[in-house]
């Protein structure tokens, strides 16, 4: 249960912005007093961004320096902050951006995509969070806090929406006061869409694509028998059935990043099965005891996931080395240099976490937090190969199996000291011990392995920061912090001679400074920061080119620097605006590191192979990485929203538009003309009418219907992935 909010959260006067309270430092504080770059999202903004049934990728670009993408679709989102992320598509991939939901870290990629509904607030914490949030957060943390049960209060809401592609969405919540000491809150969401991409080559179990049924539930019970003790129980689950991402062969023009002439979003001809199923379950218990001068917390969490995803990774249909039949994409057989059909399966996953934390509660100048944390995760991953062109498929498929057991514990603490009314200092320290046991084997006509890797890693993370009040409305801040990502292991073995790969721990050191200021009698608010970081032994993922594989590597050093801006204002009684932006300059610094490019072989038919633009490596079809930016890391990002409202009759007419921009980026570690994503602007609009306890609205996402390549598979047939097309619909919301 959250702490009581600080006294400065006074009710705003007419026209003023609300005070934003965050728990980025594990205490409830005014965002202006926290010495780090933070962006929050809540309320109507979330309603707008999720109006069309969007999954968690809607967050991309909605905070400075934040990018979110996926090679799997509605599952396995990959997060990037200040350019740092991980393009690894294996199911045990670690990320440098931590995700924390209701105080429980979500380590597995399969847990990170849990639907966003009935959320009180989202906080994006930029920069290393190694002291209070621990391992695997050297780039930052995204923190979700669900709306909590309230004792003695009955309320709730329900939202129903329909849209194009026969989409049907429902979201609702109800708060139930069971007694004077017990309350419950039930929250549900159901998102559904029919298939919108037609397959002209059905058979062998193939079908149309991109429909889904995605249902989620959260039940919370708050028990507060006395004024100084509370227990919050949380049970949640998700069940999703849909399509994997469509990998579209031959969609990029040779020598450019433009889509080929005749490209049709609604058509994807495939000779293979495409399906995806994900179910997750979890529970947590959060205990709080208030004593004289200290508050004790116990947070226990359990999560599990079951996942199956099968896709036509080679991007279409046709015999190996089929020649194109014409210049039009819509009328040609796909150039398939080799058959790649795979299924990634997570038949066994469980995660257990336990945190004990004590924090001071007094009026003196010194405040402190101390705690212990334990993490245990077991994973089994099966990677299965199919071939729809082979007789008997999928009889006796080849497969690889990986087992990973991770145990980690940490001791941490932080100190806040008020030097004067204007100057405050903070410092934190965390010791982490990680143990990971990994094994992998390959099963074909004979079996290779298992091949094992065991590793123990220890780390000390720390941070120091301070704030200085120029005035009651303006704070300067500065922060230096370190972060740590535990060693990684991968073993999606290919053939009997392959072996697992290993990446050493990466360690980050970051500097940032900025200003947070309320303006014009709190009608506007500005937050601006500059930062610089360096990462030693940066973990990167290199693709194989010829097969659907990953290899882990370490770069000696990666650097990043940039500027971030958040601004919001009530321009008038009728107009509200937000504006955000960031500049990120990243660079890989390792003179000896190189990777394969463009399928790692000459295209024997003389068509479609990509066009590298970087510095050639020591071997044919390789490229040096020294000087390259990080992949999926746009230099420029921006976001803008504008809300207009006016009283009409006994209600209110409103219109809310939102826009996000990002510049180009490299899809892979190497550079190639076809694999440099074009800059992209996407906008949304939601407008409607409110009266009494009701609201009716129309919405549209990607209103310009801009569709382009945003990702790729680096075989030698220019296989790409595109962004979502325009969606639109209507919603009805009732509150009580």
Automatic annotation (TrEMBL):
<keyword id="KW-0675">Receptor</keyword>
<dbReference type="InterPro" id="IPR000531">
    <property type="entry name" value="Beta-barrel_TonB"/>
</dbReference>
<dbReference type="InterPro" id="IPR039426">
    <property type="entry name" value="TonB-dep_rcpt-like"/>
</dbReference>
<feature type="domain" description="TonB-dependent receptor plug">
    <location>
        <begin position="31"/>
        <end position="141"/>
    </location>
</feature>
<feature type="domain" description="TonB-dependent receptor-like beta-barrel">
    <location>
        <begin position="263"/>
        <end position="703"/>
    </location>
</feature>
<keyword id="KW-0998">Cell outer membrane</keyword>
<comment type="similarity">
    <text>Belongs to the TonB-dependent receptor family.</text>
</comment>
<dbReference type="Pfam" id="PF07715">
    <property type="entry name" value="Plug"/>
</dbReference>
<keyword id="KW-1134">Transmembrane beta strand</keyword>
<keyword id="KW-0812">Transmembrane</keyword>
<protein>
    <submittedName>
        <fullName>TonB-dependent receptor</fullName>
    </submittedName>
</protein>
<keyword id="KW-0406">Ion transport</keyword>
<keyword id="KW-0813">Transport</keyword>
<keyword id="KW-0472">Membrane</keyword>
<keyword id="KW-0410">Iron transport</keyword>
<dbReference type="InterPro" id="IPR012910">
    <property type="entry name" value="Plug_dom"/>
</dbReference>
<keyword id="KW-0798">TonB box</keyword>
<dbReference type="Pfam" id="PF00593">
    <property type="entry name" value="TonB_dep_Rec_b-barrel"/>
</dbReference>
<dbReference type="InterPro" id="IPR036942">
    <property type="entry name" value="Beta-barrel_TonB_sf"/>
</dbReference>
<feature type="short sequence motif" description="TonB C-terminal box">
    <location>
        <begin position="719"/>
        <end position="736"/>
    </location>
</feature>
<dbReference type="InterPro" id="IPR010917">
    <property type="entry name" value="TonB_rcpt_CS"/>
</dbReference>
<keyword id="KW-0732">Signal</keyword>
<feature type="region of interest" description="Disordered">
    <location>
        <begin position="190"/>
        <end position="210"/>
    </location>
</feature>
<keyword id="KW-0408">Iron</keyword>
């Amino acid at each position: 249960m959250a702490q009581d909010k600080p006294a400065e959260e006074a009710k705003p006067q007419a026209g003023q912005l609300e005070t934003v309270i965050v728990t980025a430092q594990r205490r409830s504080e005014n965002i202006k007093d926290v010495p780090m770059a933070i962006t929050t999202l809540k309320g109507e903004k979330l309603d707008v961004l999720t109006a069309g049934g969007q999954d968690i990728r809607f967050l991309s670009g909605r905070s400075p320096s934040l990018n979110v993408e996926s090679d799997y679709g509605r599952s396995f989102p990959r997060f990037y902050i200040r350019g740092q992320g991980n393009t690894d598509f294996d199911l045990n991939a670690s990320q440098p951006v931590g995700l924390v939901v209701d105080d429980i870290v979500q380590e597995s990629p399969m847990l990170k995509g849990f639907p966003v509904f009935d959320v009180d607030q989202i906080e994006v914490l930029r920069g290393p969070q190694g002291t209070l949030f621990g391992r695997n957060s050297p780039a930052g943390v995204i923190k979700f806090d669900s709306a909590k049960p309230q004792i003695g209060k009955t309320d709730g809401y329900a939202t129903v929406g329909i849209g194009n592609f026969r989409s049907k969405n429902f979201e609702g919540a109800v708060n139930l006061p069971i007694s004077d000491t017990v309350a419950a809150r039930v929250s549900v969401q159901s998102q559904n869409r029919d298939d919108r991409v037609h397959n002209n080559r059905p058979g062998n179990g193939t079908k149309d694509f991109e429909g889904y049924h995605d249902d989620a539930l959260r039940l919370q019970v708050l028990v507060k028998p006395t004024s100084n003790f509370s227990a919050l129980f949380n049970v949640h689950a998700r069940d999703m059935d849909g399509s994997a991402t469509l990998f579209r062969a031959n969609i990029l023009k040779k020598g450019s990043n433009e889509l080929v002439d005749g490209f049709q979003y609604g058509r994807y001809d495939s000779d293979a099965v495409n399906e995806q199923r994900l179910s997750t379950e979890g529970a947590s218990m959060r205990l709080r005891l208030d004593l004289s001068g200290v508050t004790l917390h116990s947070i226990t969490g359990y999560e599990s996931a079951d996942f199956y995803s099968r896709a036509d990774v080679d991007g279409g249909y046709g015999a190996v080395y089929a020649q194109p039949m014409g210049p039009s994409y819509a009328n040609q057989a796909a150039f398939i240099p080799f058959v790649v059909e795979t299924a990634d399966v997570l038949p066994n996953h469980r995660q257990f976490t336990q945190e004990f934390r004590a924090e001071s509660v007094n009026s003196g100048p010194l405040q402190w937090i101390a705690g212990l944390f334990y993490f245990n995760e077991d994973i089994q991953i099966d990677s299965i190969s199919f071939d729809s062109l082979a007789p008997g498929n999928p009889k006796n498929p080849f497969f690889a199996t990986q087992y990973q057991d991770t145990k980690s514990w940490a001791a941490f603490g932080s100190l806040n000291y008020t030097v004067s009314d204007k100057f405050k200092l903070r410092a934190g320290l965390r010791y982490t011990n990680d143990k990971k046991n990994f094994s992998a084997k390959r099963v074909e006509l004979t079996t290779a392995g298992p091949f094992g890797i065991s590793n123990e890693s220890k780390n000390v993370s720390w941070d120091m920061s301070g704030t200085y009040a120029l005035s009651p409305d303006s704070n300067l801040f500065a922060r230096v912090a370190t972060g740590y990502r535990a060693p990684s292991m991968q073993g999606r073995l290919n053939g009997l001679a392959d072996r697992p790969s290993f990446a050493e721990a990466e360690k980050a050191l970051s500097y940032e400074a900025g200003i947070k200021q309320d303006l014009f009698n709190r009608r506007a608010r500005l937050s601006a920061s500059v930062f610089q970081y360096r990462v030693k032994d940066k973990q990167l993922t290199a693709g194989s080119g010829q097969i659907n594989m990953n290899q882990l590597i370490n770069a000696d050093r990666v650097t990043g620097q940039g500027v971030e801006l958040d601004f919001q204002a009530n321009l008038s009684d009728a107009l509200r605006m937000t504006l955000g932006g960031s500049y990120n300059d990243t660079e890989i610094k390792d003179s000896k590191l190189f990777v394969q490019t463009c399928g790692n072989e000459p295209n024997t038919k003389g068509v479609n192979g990509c066009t590298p633009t970087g510095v050639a490596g020591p071997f044919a079809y390789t490229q040096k990485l020294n000087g390259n930016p990080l992949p999926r890391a746009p230099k420029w990002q921006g976001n803008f929203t504008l809300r207009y409202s006016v009283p009409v009759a006994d209600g209110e007419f409103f219109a809310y538009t939102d826009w996000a921009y990002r510049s180009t980026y490299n899809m892979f570690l190497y550079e190639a003309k076809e694999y440099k994503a074009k800059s992209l602007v996407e906008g949304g609009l939601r407008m409607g009418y409110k009266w009494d306890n009701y609201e009716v609205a129309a919405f549209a996402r990607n209103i310009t219907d801009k569709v382009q390549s945003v990702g790729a598979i680096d075989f030698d047939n220019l296989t790409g992935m595109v962004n979502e097309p325009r969606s639109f619909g209507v919603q009805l919301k009732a509150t009580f």
